[in-house]
């Protein structure tokens, strides 16, 4: 049976590295993001047989339609990675409500919607593995990131509860919680200052996280787990 994996947020950063690693391992990939051109370029770089889809994870209709299209064109989706995410960092008193909502909708509601849409096929097939990308900030908190922390903390609760709900159907749900990783999301950060607190002395690369994601996707006896990939940052927080 084909191994088909949908990577939401697979066009850039961590999701893209996950897709690249999975393509090397023989999976067929659905690269999903809002910007179709960027997603197509990322899918094209993987070689033949992989497809790109445009979808806003915060929109239920988009997510449902994307699953229909993925399954029509690639077959049953048995692997799901939720790497679509945004941040709007600011102190709570300065955070606009619309920025709270966009982070909640993309980072938390989005993963709920994709997991729900994936369930039908996974339950039918009694086979499925999901990895949601959380954050060390969701476990430890960080000043200036209260809303983002809430979305990522919420994702842990959601994933652990869902893991209990669907374990009997042979579906596993895990979380990878990265520290600082070199992607578009962290471009504006003061790396020299921040890396002083990282025991391994550097930001992570997307591939560092991708190895952990693929490990959990493929580990048949691990579910409801949160795997921190942060160069030891949590030891200092
Ligand atoms: P990037 O900004 O590099 O990539 C984000 C990806 O998500 C892009 O593919 C983007 O494509 C997609 N995306 C964003 N919003 C939506 C949406 N509404 N619907 C569909 N796709 C969307 O981010 P990273 O790779 O850095 O982050 C990946 C995940 O890892 C995120 O959840 C992030 O919170 C988390 N994380 C990142 C860390 C870091 O240091 N980089 C640390 C800890 C966690 P498009 O814009 O075209 O939609």
Judging from the principal axes of the Cα atoms, what is the shape?
Answer: globular
| Count of domains | 1
Strand order of the largest sheet: 3-2-1-4-5-6-7
Question: How many separate helices?
Answer: 8
Gap between N and C termini, in Å? 44 Å
Ions, cofactors and other ligands present here are: NADPH dihydro-nicotinamide-adenine-dinucleotide phosphate
Question: Strand portion, in percent?
Answer: 15-25%
Rg value: 17 Å
The secondary-structure class comes to: alpha/beta
Task: Say what the CATH topology is.
Answer: Rossmann fold
The CATH class designation is Alpha Beta
pLDDT < 50 stretches: none
- Percent helix range: 40-55%
SSE pattern, N- to C-terminal: EHEHEHEHEHHEHHE
Overall mean pLDDT: 97
The largest sheet, given as strand count, sense and whether it forms a barrel, is: 7 strands, parallel
Architecture (CATH level 2) name: 3-Layer(aba) Sandwich
User: Got a strand count?
Assistant: 7
Looking at CATH, the homologous superfamily is NAD(P)-binding Rossmann-like Domain
Can you describe what's shown?
The protein is α/β, with parallel strands linked by helices. The protein has one domain: Rossmann fold. It has eight helices and seven strands. Helix 4 links the parallel strand 4 and strand 5. It is globular and about 45 Å long. The N and C termini lie far apart (44 Å). It binds NADPH dihydro-nicotinamide-adenine-dinucleotide phosphate. The site of NADPH dihydro-nicotinamide-adenine-dinucleotide phosphate has 30 residues, from helix 1 and helix 4. GO terms for molecular function: 3-oxoacyl-[acyl-carrier-protein] reductase (NADPH) activity; NADPH dehydrogenase (quinone) activity; quinone binding. InterPro entries: NAD(P)-bd_dom_sf, Sc_DH/Rdtase_CS, SDR_fam.
């Amino acid at each position: 049976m084909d191994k088909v994996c949908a990577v939401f947020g697979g066009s850039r950063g961590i999701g893209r590295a996950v897709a690249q690693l999975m393509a090397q391992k023989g999976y067929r990939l659905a690269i999903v993001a809002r910007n179709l051109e960027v997603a197509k370029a990322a899918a094209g770089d993987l070689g033949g047989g992989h497809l790109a889809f445009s979808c806003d994870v915060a929109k239920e209709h988009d997510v449902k339609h994307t699953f229909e299209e993925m399954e029509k064109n690639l077959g049953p989706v048995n692997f799901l990675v939720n790497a679509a995410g945004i941040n709007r960092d600011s102190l709570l008193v300065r955070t606009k409500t619309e920025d709270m909502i966009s982070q909640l909708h993309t980072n938390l509601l989005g993963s709920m919607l994709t997991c729900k849409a994936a369930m039908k096929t996974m339950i039918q097939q009694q086979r499925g593995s999901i990895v949601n990308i959380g954050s060390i900030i969701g476990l430890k908190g960080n000043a200036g990131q209260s809303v983002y922390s809430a979305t990522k903390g919420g994702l842990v609760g959601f994933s652990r509860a869902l893991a209990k709900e669907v374990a009997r159907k042979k579906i596993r749900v895990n979380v990878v919680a990265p520290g600082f990783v070199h992607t578009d999301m962290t471009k504006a950060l003061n790396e020299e200052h921040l890396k002083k607190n990282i025991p391994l002395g550097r930001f992570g690369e997307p591939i560092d996280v991708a190895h952990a994601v693929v490990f959990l996707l493929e580990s048949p006896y691990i579910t409801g787990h949160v795997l921190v990939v942060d160069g030891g940052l949590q030891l200092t927080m």
